[in-house]
């Protein structure tokens, strides 16, 4: 059971990173970024292409790919998202949905639908003795890095002036504007940061999961469920729900495999019936 729980925490690490980016983007822009899974996939493929074509190792890709895709996110926000923002939110949802399909098909056209191999870093190729069981070193690294990144982002949001402005604009954008803060000034870097987090998760996933064009679409629906469970726009709620959903999925897959594909959505329905705003959301957000 402990080993399954640890598997769940490792899976939850990806949910937490992706949900964190989604929560910040939705809170500040009110945009349901359906292309988030596509950027996760591009992060994995970016690391694969850098290694296969240019010999760039995992450690450099872990820095370069999120920065590059974060810059792409900044350009997308300035050229497209911002123009659609004054319209009905459905327009930006349809735009990001279409963008996800375009990016996915471009990668399929270039690399096909077969999974591409990506080796684990040699320094993390062994196992770690956790006392009651041994566990692959790379998975331990993924969990540790996810906790550090999510904790670091939370500290920046909670302890710095810039972070407090971003958090306020994320969770209470109208009230923040009313207090004289130019929320629009923070929209572009926040969108780029959310995309960079998705790409970062993709690079981490490359040595662990199959690198293929469908890896983002397979994950994004569950990540949306995570954000809803945690509370739309709640940064802390999204991270906490990410790890919780990872645990529930892993334990459910072990004990009730017949419900493994639907357990997360059953949990989401139960949370919404009990608390429509999500576990850490505010009723005003509805």
From TrEMBL:
<feature type="transmembrane region" description="Helical">
    <location>
        <begin position="186"/>
        <end position="207"/>
    </location>
</feature>
<feature type="transmembrane region" description="Helical">
    <location>
        <begin position="254"/>
        <end position="274"/>
    </location>
</feature>
<keyword id="KW-0472">Membrane</keyword>
<protein>
    <submittedName>
        <fullName>Branched-chain amino acid ABC transporter permease</fullName>
    </submittedName>
</protein>
<dbReference type="InterPro" id="IPR052157">
    <property type="entry name" value="BCAA_transport_permease"/>
</dbReference>
<dbReference type="InterPro" id="IPR001851">
    <property type="entry name" value="ABC_transp_permease"/>
</dbReference>
<keyword id="KW-0813">Transport</keyword>
<feature type="transmembrane region" description="Helical">
    <location>
        <begin position="137"/>
        <end position="157"/>
    </location>
</feature>
<keyword id="KW-1003">Cell membrane</keyword>
<keyword id="KW-0029">Amino-acid transport</keyword>
<feature type="transmembrane region" description="Helical">
    <location>
        <begin position="219"/>
        <end position="247"/>
    </location>
</feature>
<feature type="transmembrane region" description="Helical">
    <location>
        <begin position="56"/>
        <end position="77"/>
    </location>
</feature>
<feature type="transmembrane region" description="Helical">
    <location>
        <begin position="12"/>
        <end position="36"/>
    </location>
</feature>
<keyword id="KW-0812">Transmembrane</keyword>
<feature type="transmembrane region" description="Helical">
    <location>
        <begin position="89"/>
        <end position="107"/>
    </location>
</feature>
<dbReference type="Pfam" id="PF02653">
    <property type="entry name" value="BPD_transp_2"/>
</dbReference>
<keyword id="KW-1133">Transmembrane helix</keyword>
<comment type="similarity">
    <text>Belongs to the binding-protein-dependent transport system permease family. LivHM subfamily.</text>
</comment>
């Amino acid at each position: 059971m402990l080993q399954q729980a640890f598997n769940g925490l490792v899976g939850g690490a990806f949910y937490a990173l992706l949900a964190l980016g989604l929560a910040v983007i939705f809170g500040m822009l009110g945009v349901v970024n359906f292309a988030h899974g596509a950027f996760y996939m591009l992060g994995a493929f970016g690391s694969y292409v850098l290694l296969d074509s240019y010999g760039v190792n995992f450690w450099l890709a872990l820095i370069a790919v999120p920065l590059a895709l974060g810059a792409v996110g900044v350009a997308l926000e300035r050229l497209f998202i911002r123009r659609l923002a004054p319209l009905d939110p459905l327009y930006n949802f349809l735009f990001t949905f279409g963008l996800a399909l375009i990016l996915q098909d471009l990668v399929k056209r270039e690399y096909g639908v077969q999974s591409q191999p990506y080796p684990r870093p040699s320094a993390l190729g062994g196992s770690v003795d956790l006392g009651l069981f041994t566990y692959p070193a790379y998975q331990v690294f993924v969990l540790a890095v996810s906790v550090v990144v999510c904790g670091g982002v939370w500290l920046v949001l909670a302890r710095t002036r810039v972070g407090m402005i971003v958090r306020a604009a994320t969770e209470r954008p109208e009230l923040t504007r009313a207090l004289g803060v130019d929320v629009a000034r923070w929209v572009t870097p926040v969108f780029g940061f959310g995309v960079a987090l998705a790409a970062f998760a993709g690079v981490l996933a490359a040595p662990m999961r199959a690198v293929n064009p469908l890896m983002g679409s397979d994950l994004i629906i569950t990540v949306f469920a995570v954000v809803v469970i945690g509370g739309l726009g709640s940064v802390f709620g999204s991270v906490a729900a990410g790890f919780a959903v990872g645990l529930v999925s892993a334990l459910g897959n072990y004990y009730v495999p017949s419900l493994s594909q639907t357990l997360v959505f059953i949990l989401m329905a139960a949370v919404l019936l009990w608390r429509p705003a999500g576990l850490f959301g505010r009723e005003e957000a509805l």
